[in-house]
Amino acid sequence: MEAVWQAPQQAAARERSFLREWVLTVDHKKIGIMYGVTGLFFFLVGGLFALLVRTQLLNPAGTLFSSQQFNEFFTMHATVMIFAVIIPVLTGAFGNYLVPLQIGARDMAFPRMNALSYWLYLASGIILLLSMVFGMPDAGWTAYPPYSLQSPGPGIDFWVTAVHLAGLSSILGSINFIVTIFKMRAPGMTFHRMPLFTWSMLVTAFMQLFGTPALAGAVTTLLLDRHFGTVFYNSSAGGDPMLYQHLFWFYSHPAVYIMILPAFGIISEVLPVFSRKPIFGYHAIAYSSVGIGFLGFFVWAHHMFVAGMSLQAGIPFMITSLIIAVPTSVKIFNWLATMWRGAVEYTVPMMFASLGFIGSFIIGGFSGLIVASVPLDMHLHDTYFIVAHIHYVLFGGAVMCIMAGLHFWFPKVTGRMFNNRLGYWSFWLYFIGTQVTFFPMHFMGLAGMPRRIASYPAEFQLWNVVATIGAYILGLGTILIMINLVWSAVYGPRVSSNPWGARTLEWTVSSPPPEHNFDDIPVVTENPYQPYGEPEPQPGFAPV
C-alpha cells in the first residue's frame, strides 16, 4: 500500500510549479532549506557591513564615512548577524530540517505554522534592509534609551518592527519544536535515545519561548515612548532607562545560549562520527544543555555592572555567570574525550568542529569568565575586549559550527558531495582569519580602546590594521564556501544515503530524503551513539 501511494506522490511532486513547490510548501525540509539559503544571503550582507566597519578603522581619522554612518553600519552588522543569520540558521535551518528526521517523524507538528515562521523571518529581514533606503538604525543592536528615544528618522522604528517579527517567528517555531519532540517521536525513541542535536533544540525552544516575550515588551514600550507619549524610559518624566536594559538582557543573554546550544548539538553529532567512537558522556552532554538553559536566565545583569546598578546587586549575577561555565566545560571535556584515542578522520566538517570551533570557543569562554567578574568588567566594559569576547563566542563558536554542520549534512540535503580541496582552503582561511581579526582586539581593549567609535588615537592603528586584514581573509573564506556549496549542489559527485557512516536516523533514508521522510515509521531500539564496529553502521530501528 505504501509503494502504491508513493509513486503518484513523487510524480505529482515533479509536476509542481515553483509556487507550489517552495512558496506554498509546508514540508519541513524545504522550509529548512529556505531558512538556510535566506540566512546565508543575510550572512553575506552582514559580512559586507563588517568589512565596511573594519575598512573605516584602517585609518585613525576614519575617513571612509561619517561618524553617523559608522553608527548605522555597525548597528546593521550586529542586528543582521544576530537576528537574521545566527539564530534563524541554527534553529530555523538546521532545526527544521533535522529534528523530524532525527526523531523518526514525517513532519513538524504544525506544518502551516512552521511555514508562517519562515515568512515572518523573511519579512523581518526585508524590513531591516529597507531601513537602508528610508533611514538606518544608529543606536547599536541593543538600542539603549535615552539615545534610541531621541534618534532621528525612522531607523529605530524599522529596527523595532524587524525585531518584533523575528521574535514572533521564534515563538511560533519554539512551540512547534516542543510539541514535535514531545509528541511525535518514533516508537522506542525515548529521551535518552534522542540525538544530542535534538536535545539542544528542545532546550533552545524553551529558552526562546520564555525569553522572547521580554524582548517584545522592551521594544514595544520603546516604540510607545518614541511616538505615543508614554514615559517608560524617560528619566526626566519619572521613567527609568535601566528598566529597558533589564528587559532587553533578560532575553538577550539567554539569546547567547540560543545561538550556541544548537551549535553545541551540531558538534555533538560531528565529533563521534569522525572519531569513530561513541560520544563520551551522552547523559552529561544532554543534561548540561538543560543546566545551561536554566542558568541562562539568571545571568542577564552582568551586562549592567557599569550601568548604574549597585555593586552589591551585581555580586549574585557574577556568581551565576561563573557557575554557568561549568556545564559548558563539561561539554568541552566530553568532546575532547570523544576524540581521545579515536580513529580521527580530519574531514572538512571535522576540521571546522574540532580545531575551528573548540580551538576558538575556548578562548571566548575564558574571556567570558574575565568579564563576568565585577571589578574586571568595570575596567573592560565598552572596550574592544568585549568585541573580542563576543566574536570568539559567536563567530569562533556559532559560525564555525554552522560551517561544520553545512558541510556535514550537505550530502544529505543535496545528494552530492562538496569539493574537498575548496573545503580545506576555506577552513584554513576561516581559522586564520578568526584569530587575526579578533585576537588583537583583546590587546586593544586591555589598553583602553573604546568600542563603537569611528576614529581612535594613533597608537591603536597597528592592531586595527591587523584586524582589518583578518576580516578580509574571512571575507575570502566566505566567498570560497559559497562558491563550493553552490557549485557542488549542481555538479558535485553523487553520494549514497550515508557517506559518512553516521548512525542517527536521518542517515537511514535516501539523500536527499523523500518528501514523506520514512516509508515506514522506524522503531528505535538503541542509543544512536553505539560503537563503530561495523564497516556499514547498523541503525537501531526496524520498520513497523
From TrEMBL:
* GO annotation, cellular component aspect: plasma membrane
The GO biological-process annotations, alphabetized, read as:
aerobic respiration; electron transport coupled proton transport; respiratory electron transport chain
Which UniProt keywords are present, listed alphabetically?
Answer: Cell membrane, Copper, Electron transport, Heme, Iron, Membrane, Metal-binding, Respiratory chain, Translocase, Transmembrane, Transmembrane helix, Transport
Enzyme Commission code(s) on record? 7.1.1.9
Query: Which protein family is named in the record?
Result: Belongs to the heme-copper respiratory oxidase family.
Instruction: Name the job this protein performs.
Output: Cytochrome c oxidase is the component of the respiratory chain that catalyzes the reduction of oxygen to water. Subunits 1-3 form the functional core of the enzyme complex. CO I is the catalytic subunit of the enzyme. Electrons originating in cytochrome c are transferred via the copper A center of subunit 2 and heme A of subunit 1 to the bimetallic center formed by heme A3 and copper B.
What's the protein here called? Answer: Cytochrome c oxidase subunit 1
What is the species of this protein?
Answer: Alicyclobacillus cellulosilyticus
Q: What is the lineage of its organism?
A: Bacteria, Bacillati, Bacillota, Bacilli, Bacillales
Its gene is: ctaD
